[in-house]
Fold:
Amino acid sequence: MNPLQPLMALLAQSERERDEAWTQAQRAGEAQAAAAAQAEQLVNYRREYEQRWSAQFKTEGRIELVHCYRGFMERLTQAVEQQQRVAEQAAQRLQQARAALAEQELRVASVRKLIERRRQELRITADRIEQKETDEFGSRIAWAQPGSAFGPRLPNAA
Structure:
């Protein structure tokens, strides 16, 4: 079994979670933009409506018409305020989604860093084992060679 397999599985899971957080952040951004655009449209409509009726009231201002205008403006103002609250909530959800995305990106980076450290540790361990084997092999050869300082002594033939 590969000693990095559990970490690779953790990395894959972290990346999936990060991708899901990215998707949620995208959706939250789109929802926030749509809510803000709708609020802006309502504000613009209210402004145009006020201008149009302000000109109308200069020429004639029947009381029934004024009451209708005021009632509609009240409801329109409530709609604008409601939509602005919706836009603010969407902005908060967007902030939360971006924070969650940043957290997931940090987690992925941390797991990658951990995997790299483990790979480096495995390389160092493998290098040490290889060096030890090379040293042992070299000392066996030196020991086995006749006439070496380490090798077996041959009787002097003198």
